[in-house]
């Protein structure tokens, strides 16, 4: 008798996770990255196809089967749909405005930048951008300046520390021969609101990092220079380079950036953290801890860059990182290592002088490096003696040829509140004082050419006037900014004159008081000008370079101290650590003068007694 068997359901093995080869073969995948070891044939990888839901009634399971999300902690964090829509809307608006590129969801397109380039510098005619990286949308701007960034994205790993900080495993950052060029102005010319909205998507992993970078964008980048300008290096150079690394570090898809970029990224976070440490009344310990943490990471990454050969590939970013490391020291106020980083910058600058690569950013970094070095030398309590070896004519024009500040170094006007000519006078004052120190140290008579050089410099400083300075970095129609720059330049020149007469050739007390009055008057005028326009222009967030105030205030007479006290107390509101330290030195000099001590310059005696170095600016 035949027996009918009841039908049994046969379970089929299906998989919606694993590589595409194992999915197609319907076998369990071992999920090994980047290639599965179970396939027995070429692994098709783990790429994800994106699908739009065309109809609201479409069943979710159908979409799930077509594009199942494979969980991997190394993949980017999820974005809220509204945030993605906002990014796409902004991107579409930019494309429609510029009239280039191909609009489409999550596509890649070419952008042809028909912009005027500086002669002698070859900028690429086209750049490959991805829609999802809408942070780097194109803007039509004059004189584009390009910096090089790596484009490959290796399989990076991230780890979370006890304090919640996300860091990348440096071993996962692989070098790449491929590269794309990113215009720093693509980011720097975006509004702070757009930057923050786009930036927040990439910082959902770590709220602390998001807060620190947001504070850097909104406050610190403007705070660190005395005048608002579109070519602010803290926004147009440092931030874009650091931003290129931050998106990979924080979401876990590491860009193959150099260790220099990683160092710069953490250095900017440290500067921002120490600013918040001084600004906030609550959670101060938290920001101090974050500042020290990111400084340690910056130092580690910078050391790796200097020993691994990355520096040869991206010297500009390495210099940016070094300069930012000095900024950490100044923002914190400890000022225990800034000269180390600046000396490293000077060595790197020497090698960059022989480079064939040139760009506006390259030149601006070189000028900033030289000026930071001059500021550091100017307040060194110990002079480095140098022998005088010249025997030719020592006119001011001949002397100026040795200056690291060419006549076209206009970025000094808005970055440090001075001009290339006045900065050169400061450089020559330091140089000639070193030659004089060598003669005094060895008991040698001062050579006649050296005496003539001192006389030429004195005459140049004495006969200088603001009318000699074109101040081309500021449009002539921008009267407020032009007035602000003028105040800073006048104050800087007056302090250079005080510096010259205290180091090289003493002058009458009345002349010294006259220069002192000019300096304090213009510094107070600059602060008043910023306050009067702060509501409309946000100028109140720009801190002055306090070097002029430090040099001149140390030589102020008792009758001039009340005005200096008002200025020094007023600038404490910028919450920069070095300003408080310098004000303390000024007060010690005044106490020393009241006790009968007449050594000049007064700051040198105080610094020698305290065994420390100080610096202002940067």
In short:
By secondary structure, the protein is mainly alpha-helical. The protein is built from 23 helices and 6 strands. The chain folds into 3 domains: 12-72, CD2-Gal4; 81-345, no CATH class; 390-610, no CATH class.
Can you tell me about this structure?
With 618 residues, the protein is mostly helical. The protein folds into three domains: 12-72, CD2-Gal4; 81-345, no CATH class; 390-610, no CATH class. It is 54% helix and 4% strand. The chain has helices spanning 20-25, 60-66, 81-98, 184-188, 192-202, 207-223, 233-251, 259-279, 284-308, 310-313, 315-332, 338-352, 360-378, 396-400, 411-415, 420-441, 448-463, 479-503, 509-537, 547-554, 561-571, 577-594, 602-610, and strands spanning 108-112, 126-130, 147-150, 158-160, 166-168, 179-182. β4 and β5 (166-168) form a beta hairpin. α8 runs antiparallel to α9 (284-308), α19 packs antiparallel against α20 and α22 crosses α23 (602-610). The radius of gyration is 29 Å and the shape is elongated. The relative contact order is 0.07.
């Amino acid at each position: 008798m035949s027996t009918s068997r009841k039908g049994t359901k046969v379970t089929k093995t299906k998989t919606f996770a694993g590589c595409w080869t194992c999915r197609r073969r319907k076998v369990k995948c071992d999920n090994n990255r980047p290639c599965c070891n179970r396939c027995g044939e070429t692994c098709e990888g783990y790429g994800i196809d994106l699908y739009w839901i065309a109809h609201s009634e479409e069943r979710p399971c159908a979409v799930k089967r077509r594009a199942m999300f494979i969980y991997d902690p190394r993949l980017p964090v999820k974005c809220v749909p509204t945030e993605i829509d906002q990014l796409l809307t902004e991107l579409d608006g930019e494309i429609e405005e510029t009239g280039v590129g191909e609009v489409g969801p999550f596509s890649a397109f070419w952008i042809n930048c028909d912009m005027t380039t500086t002669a002698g510098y070859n900028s690429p005619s086209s750049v490959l951008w991805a829609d999802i990286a809408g942070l780097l949308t194109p803007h039509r701007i004059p004189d584009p300046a390009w910096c090089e960034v790596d484009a490959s994205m290796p399989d990076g790993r991230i780890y979370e520390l006890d304090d919640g900080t996300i860091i990348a495993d440096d071993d996962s950052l692989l070098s790449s021969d491929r590269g794309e060029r990113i215009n720093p102005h693509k980011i720097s010319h975006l509004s702070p609101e757009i930057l923050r909205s786009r930036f927040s998507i990439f910082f959902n992993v770590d709220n602390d990092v998001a807060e620190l970078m947001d504070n850097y964008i909104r406050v610190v980048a403007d705070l660190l220079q005395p005048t608002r300008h579109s070519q602010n290096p803290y926004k147009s150079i440092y931030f874009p380079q650091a931003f290129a690394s931050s998106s990979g570090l924080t979401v876990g898809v590491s860009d193959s950036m150099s260790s220099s970029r990683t160092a710069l990224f953490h250095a900017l976070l440290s500067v921002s953290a120490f600013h918040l440490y001084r600004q906030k009344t609550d959670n101060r310990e938290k920001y101090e801890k974050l500042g020290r943490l990111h400084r340690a990471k910056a130092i580690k990454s910078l050391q790796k860059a200097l020993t691994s050969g990355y520096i040869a590939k991206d010297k500009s970013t390495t210099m940016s990182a070094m300069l930012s490391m000095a900024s950490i020291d100044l923002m914190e106020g400890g000022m225990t290592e800034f000269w180390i980083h600046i000396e490293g910058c000077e060595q790197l600058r020497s090698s960059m002088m022989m480079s064939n690569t040139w760009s506006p950013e390259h030149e601006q970094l070189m000028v900033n490096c030289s000026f930071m070095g001059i500021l550091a030398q100017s307040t060194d309590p110990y002079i480095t003696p140098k022998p005088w070896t010249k025997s030719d004519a020592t006119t001011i024009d001949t002397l100026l040829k040795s200056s690291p500040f060419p006549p076209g170094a206009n970025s000094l006007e808005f970055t440090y509140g001075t001009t290339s000519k006045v900065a050169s006078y400061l450089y020559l004052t330091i140089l000639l004082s070193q030659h004089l120190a060598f003669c005094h140290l060895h008991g040698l008579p001062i050579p006649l050419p050296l005496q003539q050089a001192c006389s030429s410099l004195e005459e140049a400083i004495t006969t200088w006037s603001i009318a000699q300075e074109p101040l081309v970095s500021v449009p002539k129609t921008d009267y407020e900014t032009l007035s602000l720059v003028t105040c800073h330049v006048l104050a800087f020149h007056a302090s250079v004159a005080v510096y010259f007469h205290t180091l090289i050739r003493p002058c009458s007390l009345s002349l010294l008081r006259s220069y002192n009055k000019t300096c304090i008057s213009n510094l107070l005028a600059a602060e008043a000008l910023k306050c009067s326009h702060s509501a409309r222009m946000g100028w109140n967030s720009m801190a002055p370079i306090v070097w002029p105030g430090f040099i001149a205030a140390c030589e102020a007479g008792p009758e001039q101290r009340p005005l200096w006290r008002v200025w020094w107390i007023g600038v404490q509101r910028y919450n920069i650590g070095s300003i408080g330290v310098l004000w303390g030195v000024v007060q010690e000099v005044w106490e020393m003068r009241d006790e009968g001590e007449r050594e000049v310059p007064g700051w040198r005696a105080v610094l020698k007694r305290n065994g420390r170095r100080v610096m202002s600016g940067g």
